[in-house]
Amino acid sequence: MSGPWAGRRLHLIGAGGTGMSGYARAAVALGATVTGSDAAASEYARLLREDGVLDVRIGHDAANIPAGADVEVVHSTAIGAHNVERRAAAERGLRELTRAELLGELTALRRTIAVGGTHGKTTTSAMLVTILTAAGLDPGWLIGASAGAGLPNARWSEGEWLIVEADESDRSLLAIDAQIAVLLNVELDHGDVFSSLGELRELFADFLRGAPQAVLCAGGGLEELRADAALASPGHVELVEGGSRFEWCSEPVALRVPGVHNARNAAAALEAARLAGAAARPAAASLAAFAGAGRRFELVGEHAGARLYSDYAHHPSEVVATLAGARTVPHERLIAVFQPHMFSRTSLFAGAFGAALAAADLAVVLDVYPARERAAEHPGVSGLLVARAAADAGDGRTVRWAPALEDAQAALRELLRPGDICVVMGAGDVDELARRVVER
Question: Which of 13, 33, 100, 393 is deepest in the core (most CB within 10 A)?
């Protein structure tokens, strides 16, 4: 295959993840020969296979790495040095790259818009895909979910612009070679990485200083992080059924995704698109077609006359925003299903999660999805902390403790009634629950 990376051989450990699967798509499009593995099967691995990009090998094994001294081994943040494939690569003297280093290489090949912030990165990036595509700019993208409308989580294009998410959780945002840096908000989320909000703000300030141009959501003190940044703010926001209307650059904007937070995301996307050369009127009009990114208040289907939505919310502020947006959709009852993500985050925010879930008419809480953490290192921390906090804050509302997916599925079969909206939230495998319930 021809391309600037022709002759290059990459092996991706964790290739079935949201980020690494996108890098696989980009590397293949650039002409590289790509192999990869992951610990478990995933939707992203399935799509890579079906799209003819890569057949991800399930299960880590030293034999997964192809023969030859020229293979470069790329690993995601979740892959520790003890991993059998990383150990094999080290023993063979192969070049190893972090996902941040590969992302840095990719962003150096295109003019890049990098979207950062604690919340809203994926949705705002997907909005930018919609806007720049409508403007005829043929953007590429590397984002953490489907860009909506049946699009994958990544595409390498021939256009001038590349849209990426700037992840603060592992400080990889500093590896991005960005022309336009977008910052949506700053809240402490990864308590296992950052000791204080001040440390996080300084990281985002470094991110902003690294780009020639910057966009900030107005308010929240972000203006202090870069004085010459363009400020984005939706004007005259009106919440409507399942969406909102507002003004930007004197142009009307109609959104089909709910909540004030999405109006703010859209204003930031529009401002970044303006800096990239998109004309204001068609940019504003294009968002009427945006129906949301994958797992961002995504309608999965119906069961027993109730509609089930899947959402990636895994921080208290995100749960608050998601449930507030859900309230704009007609319903009889609002049911919140929540799977806490990581023990460290659960320990830090259990009370805040409980208060956020009190906005629902009833809640179902699962146990913690551990991600890269181990329960033994966090004694006494479980989803039950969140369930108890939700009961304390719920003023008599029903809260069900359903630690496993099977428990939650049984609870929803009992609870769901016609006219209900059920929002299934979390960054772990809880999306599978929503799809199981709909299938049944």
Answer: 13
Residue 8 burial (CB < 10 Å; 0-12/13-18/19+)? middle
Question: Helices 316-326 & 343-357, crossing angle to 10 degrees?
Answer: 30
Average pLDDT, the chain: 97
Q: Which of 77, 98, 119 is the last residue of a domain?
A: 98
pTM for the full predicted model = 0.95
Let me know whether 145 and 196 are in one domain.
yes
pLDDT tens figures, 361-388? 999 999 999 998 999 999 999 999 999 9
Span 280-295, mean pLDDT? Answer: 97
Q: How far apart are CA 382 and CA 54, in angstroms?
A: 37
Domain end among 289, 316, 334: 289
Does one domain contain both 128 and 249? Answer: yes
**Predicted local distance difference test score (pLDDT) of residue 243:** 97
Q: What is the CATH number of the domain that holds 240?
A: 3.40.1190.10
Alpha carbon 28 to its chain centroid, in Å, reads 23
DSSP state of 60: -
Domain that holds residue 239: 110-289
317 SS3 class: helix
* pLDDT digit string, tens, across residues 168-208: 999 999 999 999 999 999 999 988 889 999 999 999 999 99
